[in-house]
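Page 42, continued from yesterday. The earlier attempt failed because a stray header line got pasted into the input along with the sequence. Redoing it now with the clean sequence only.
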Amino acid sequence: MAWIVLLLAGLFEVAWAIGLKYTDGFTRPLPTALTLAAMAASVLLLGVVMKSLPVGTAYAVWVGVGAVGTALLGIVLFAEPATAGRLVSLGLIVAGIVGLKLATPA
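This time it went through. C-alpha cells are written below.
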C-alpha cells in the first residue's frame, strides 16, 4: 500500500510542477490555488509514506516519478524536444526507480 501512496504522491508532484507553468508567476488565482493544493497533497502523502519506507528510497522514488512525469508532459503539452538522449535518460531514471522498489523491503 505504501508504494501506491508513494506513486500518488509522485503524480501530485507532476501536477504541481506542470501547474507552475499555468500560474503565470502566481498571477492567475485558479491555477495558483490548484498548484498549491497539489504541492500540499504531494508532500503530505510523502510524509505518510515515510512512516513505512526508508527515507532515501521514498524521496528518490518521489523525485524520480515527478521528474519523469514532468519531463514527459513537457514533451506532450509544451512541445519540448523528445531527443534520444532525453528519452534514454528518462529510461535510466525509471530503471533506478524500479531498482529501488526491488531492493527495498516493503
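Notes: The helical segments are 2-23, 29-49, 55-78, 84-103.
Reminder to self: strip header lines before submitting.
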